[in-house]
């Protein structure tokens, strides 16, 4: 008996007990769907973290004023140690593509009768390259604006939406920030939320010298963003930066650094490892339901063998071999699992999309999760179907013909 005949016999057996077969497949359907949904949730979280860190810049080191427990960007810290000269010196190091200082403050922004509170970030034109910002209109300010302490501003889309009415082009308009008048020279395209949930579009970029001299009154900067020439040179650049700053700040070997260097690539790797572990944990929990479904398959197949004992004896009496009987019941088990697997895949894909839509969770469905679930369901069909099939193949034909239900 070839595979086609075994398939036809298996299909007829399933059709003869539709309700029982449907309930048997339900365990596989739920298990496969659960695995796909759990993996998609984990992959979605990982992708979101990766995208958010990437949106901060590629191959990026961030140097903060203060020691390793120092203040984050925009926060008020007790130690001011970084200067524009430090940023320029770092920019001359080998394998450094860009070195961009930042100094942020809070700003009360007004245009006409509209007011808004936003972050005002003093920086240099190279920030656009590091952050990979694109402009919806206008242009970024220039190095000349930094030198001349110009009163110009590039605003994020959130600021533009809250200050200007629909149809009004902000470029060329004058706004006041903390009672100082600035000319809007550009509007940034939206980038969405940052890694910690901050709105990256609720920001105003101005020349760093303007923030230092006219808004804050400080010669220091809070952060220096250092972009390495390549990902492979990150460790090399970080080591050189730390050595340079210790020399410039006259820090001895026994003293603690007055700066803190953070490698975003390392942060990304750590977070991806954490989300990968979470994904595997979720998938493992979901896989338990697949095992339960496999046990259900074994149970039903044992019942089927008992019910069809006379049929098995008759097949053997007319020439069916043990291999034929074994293959027949294995194929039936495999058909049940694969049918449940296909329905489970469809349910899982739809379920993941519904979770993304209604729960607001990021889900990311990969071919890996689909193939894994389909392969797992096939393995379960063979594994849990083998014992009942072996039992059927081992029946004595004479005893089987004598069997009565």
From TrEMBL:
Its main location: membrane. Residues 21-243 form the MacB-like periplasmic core domain. The keyword Cytoplasm does not apply. The chain crosses the membrane at residues 20-41, 281-305, 325-352, 364-387. One of its GO terms (cellular component) is plasma membrane. It is an enzyme of class 3 (hydrolase). Keywords: ATP-binding, Cell membrane, Hydrolase, Membrane, Nucleotide-binding, Transmembrane, Transmembrane helix. It is a multi-pass membrane protein. Residues 284-397 form the ABC3 transporter permease C-terminal domain. It holds the Pfam family MacB_PCD. It comes from the Bacteria. Belongs to the ABC-4 integral membrane protein family. This is Macrolide export ATP-binding/permease protein MacB. The lineage of its organism: Bacteria, Bacillati, Bacillota, Clostridia, Eubacteriales.
């Amino acid at each position: 008996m070839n595979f086609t005949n075994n398939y036809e016999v298996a299909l007829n057996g399933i059709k003869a007990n539709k309700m029982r077969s449907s309930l048997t497949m339900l365990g596989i359907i739920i298990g496969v769907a659960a695995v796909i949904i759990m993996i998609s949730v984990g992959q979605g979280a990982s992708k979101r973290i990766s995208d958010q860190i990437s949106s901060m810049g590629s191959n990026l080191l961030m140097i903060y004023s203060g020691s390793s427990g120092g203040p984050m960007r925009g926060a008020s810290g007790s130690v001011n140690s970084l200067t524009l000269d430090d940023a320029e010196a770092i920019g001359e190091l080998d394998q450094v593509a860009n070195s961009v200082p930042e100094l942020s403050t809070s700003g009360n922004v007004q245009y006409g009768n509209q007011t808004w509170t936003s972050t005002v970030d003093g920086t240099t034109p190279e920030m656009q390259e590091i952050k990979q910002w694109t402009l919806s209109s206008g242009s970024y300010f220039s190095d000349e604006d930094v030198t001349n302490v110009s009163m110009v501003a590039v605003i994020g889309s959130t600021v533009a939406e809250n200050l200007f009415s629909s149809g009004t082009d902000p470029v060329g308009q004058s706004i006041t920030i903390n009672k100082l008048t600035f000319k809007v020279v550009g509007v940034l395209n939206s980038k969405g939320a940052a890694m910690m949930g901050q709105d990256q579009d609720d920001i105003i970029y101005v020349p760093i010298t303007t923030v230092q001299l006219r808004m804050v009154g400080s010669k220091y900067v809070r952060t220096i963003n250092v972009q390495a020439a390549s990902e492979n040179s990150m460790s090399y650049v970080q080591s050189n930066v730390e050595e340079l700053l210790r020399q410039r700040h006259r820090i001895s070997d026994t003293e603690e650094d007055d700066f803190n260097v953070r490698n975003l690539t390392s942060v990304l790797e750590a977070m991806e490892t954490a989300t990968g572990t979470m994904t595997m944990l979720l998938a493992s929990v979901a896989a338990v339901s697949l095992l339960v479904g496999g046990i259900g398959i074994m149970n039903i197949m044992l019942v089927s063998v008992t019910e069809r004992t006379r049929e098995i004896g008759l097949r053997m009496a007319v020439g069916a071999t043990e291999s034929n009987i074994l293959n027949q019941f294995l194929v039936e088990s495999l058909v049940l699992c694969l049918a449940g697997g296909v329905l489970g895949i469809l349910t899982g894909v739809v379920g993941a999309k519904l979770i993304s839509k209604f729960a607001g969770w990021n889900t990311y469905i990969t071919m890996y999760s689909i193939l894994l679930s389909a392969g797992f369901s096939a393995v379960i069909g063979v594994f849990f179907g083998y014992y009942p099939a072996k039992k059927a193949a081992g029946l004595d034909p004479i005893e089987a013909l004598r069997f009565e239900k």
